[in-house]
Design brief:
The structure is a homodimer. By secondary structure, chain A is of the alpha/beta class. Chain A has 3 domains: 43 residues, Orthogonal Bundle (434 Repressor (Amino-terminal Domain)); 125 residues, Response regulator (Rossmann fold), CATH 3.40.50; 136 residues, Response regulator (Rossmann fold), CATH 3.40.50. Chain A is built from 14 helices and 12 strands. In chain A, the strands form 2 sheets. In chain A, strands 2-1-3-4-5-11 form a 6-stranded parallel sheet, sandwiched between helices. Chain A has a 6-stranded mixed sheet with strand order 7-6-8-9-10-12, with helices on both faces. In chain A, helix 5 links the parallel strand 1 and strand 2. The structure holds a DNA duplex.
DNA sequence: ATGAAAGCGCTAACAA
DNA sequence: TTGTTAGCGCTTTCAT
């Protein structure tokens, strides 16, 4: 017993054309707001669309023109910073004909490749890649196939636009803040990076560089102490464990990301330590988590929302004109001080 | 100066057929693992695909057959519980030909409608709707158009499969735990629901019912105290404010979701109160947030991962056979006790 | 300004 | 088992 006696054939452009007494070409033009449709034609077609409840098939459109679909690749969904970026994208795309879909890639090159390919296979009109770790070559290849905006990756490409935060400066803000409070031994937990190209392009590397530079600039070269793990909660936990077990415990920790700071807090709690009494802690991203009362984490705000808005804008521009020169938007971070940082214990 | 001198036409099934010296039908069959292709044909075609780097166009496929695309709608990305569900979906879909894409809908019916429509427009092969708030009628309509699995919504439908947690029982676990600790005045912060149909189907309503039932069962009818807000951090904050300002402060609060518990903690912190010393607090979802050391929130584990796995499995089954009777998977919750709950202050 | 008709890259009848 | 061919629902020349 099939549950659908009459699988209700979808309304097509032909139905609309017939109902409005015009050609399919005319309907198509109205759909795309293309040139060559008189006002009266517009109203005729639009009311037919309305009456029939017609919705264009993205698959069919994609075979010739656009799909009005944008793909957003993100490394992981748990880092709340990405939610801010997505809000920005949503905001800018709202009201346009474009709909965006997200796909998570598991923080490895193979996963990213699979996701990017699948977006291309689905004839998406453009893609926004958030903090990709793939080789630059791969990104270029993708960008030559489909309009692309890369978020959170430094460096100039002739093929894709970029939106980044000035991570170097952001790290400097943290060090300056802690130095001013009187800290001299400020440790940094970074995301380990080996690949030489990525070493320059990845935000984590820039933050680590900015940290070192600022420490030196403040005459705290002796207080430089870097632990390399990963930008995950687990990475933060392990990094903190190593720092706490070391011979010379830092009076402050600069975690490369809020999610890393979470892991640090896990470790601190385990040892019965509290911020800022026993140790000061700062993060990066200013996620909602950092603002959360019981945590109250000093963090660098890199305006994820603005990054999302800019990325969406650049992408639509590029979809409109694929030959325009690429743009590099670099946003300035600001420090949000909260209760997790204070002067070091006397 | 166009950046792409030769826009490199995509390799099509015709190219593959020509290169392998076979018909396009043969290639199509191999692609779909369809019946009627000899082993030697398979290898011939596969190597041609390999050599040419051919990838099928989902748009073109969608016009006749499947797109191998699954859509997952989720109400908001910030609630970490959904990440668990997505992990489950990812796990089950991994290794299949299906790729899934997520779309966020803004917790309102119009937003959900837009997202569901857009998935249908894109000829997706199936959709997983996570905690939708749309009227049942709408869900049915969607399910009659495209294979659908609904997560987190009670009630039986002839058109879609469901995966839920036994929310009624879950609330009971919390009350039992708190009662055993000696609490008699246990407040509950619920998500306000007015619509009569949803009142029965929504998890939040079931939790509130389970709470009331359990309170009565434990002889704590006098201690019943329900505050209606929303399942958001803000809702938790406001709910807690109301409870703390009331004439009779509860010794324990059962927040309907971990995200609500976060808001409660915000309010408690503001008043200089701590858990479990001043007040006990329990949540629902057992998100990574609850497990987070400094929070250590007692919470109900509804096995989000398992929900995701089950949903993906049911969906693939339904895509294979749309006429099979619908299934209702109901998972049993378990309580994870942590440091946020203890005996009430003497 | 409008419409007729040729595809876009596949899949599915059907024929061989 | 294999190949031929007619669409799927649009967009896009190109006439008119």
């Amino acid at each position: 017993m099939p549950r659908q006696p009459n699988p209700a054939r979808r309304v097509t452009i032909i139905d609309v054309a017939r109902h409005a007494g015009v050609s399919t070409t005319a309907v198509s033009k109205v759909l795309r707001n293309a040139y060559g449709a008189s006002p009266q034609m517009q109203t005729k077609v639009r009311s037919a669309i309305e009456e029939l409840g017609y919705r264009p098939s993205a698959a069919a459109r994609g075979l010739r023109g656009q799909t009005y679909t944008i793909g957003v690749m993100l490394p992981e969904i748990r880092n709340p910073f990405f939610a801010d970026v997505l809000d920005g994208v949503t905001e800018h795309l709202d009201g346009t004909d474009y709909q965006f879909f997200m796909a998570q890639c598991c923080n490895d090159e193979a996963g990213e490749a699979r996701v990017m390919e699948s977006m291309i296979d689905r004839s998406m009109d453009g893609v926004i890649l958030i903090a990709p770790i793939s080789a630059r070559k791969r990104l270029q290849a993708v960008a030559r196939t489909v309009p692309t905006v890369v978020i959170g990756r430094h460096g100039h490409s002739p093929d894709y636009d970029t939106v980044t935060d000035d991570d170097f400066a952001g790290a400097g803000l943290v060090v300056a803040h802690l130095a001013e409070l009187g800290h001299r031994h400020i440790a940094h937990i970074e995301h380990l990076e080996k690949d030489p190209v990525r070493l320059v392009e990845m935000p984590n590397a820039q933050r680590a560089d900015g940290y070192r530079h600022a420490m030196n600039a403040h005459g705290l070269a002796d207080g430089i102490d870097v632990v390399s793990t990963t930008y995950t909660q687990e990475g933060g936990y392990l990094g903190a464990r190593r720092l706490l077990a070391g011979p010379r415990r830092p009076t402050a920790i600069f975690a490369g990301a809020d999610i890393v700071a979470m892991g640090v807090l896990d470790a601190l709690t385990e040892d019965g330590l509290t911020t800022p009494h026993d140790i000061s802690l700062a993060g990066y991203d200013n996620t909602t988590f950092a603002a959360f009362g019981p945590i109250s984490l000093t963090s660098v705000d890199q305006a994820g929302h603005q990054m999302g808005v800019n990325a969406a804008r650049l992408l639509l521009d590029r979809i409109t004109d694929r030959t325009r020169p690429t743009a590099q938007v670099k946003l300035s971070p600001s420090l949000v001080t909260r209760r997790s940082t204070a002067a070091p214990p006397a």
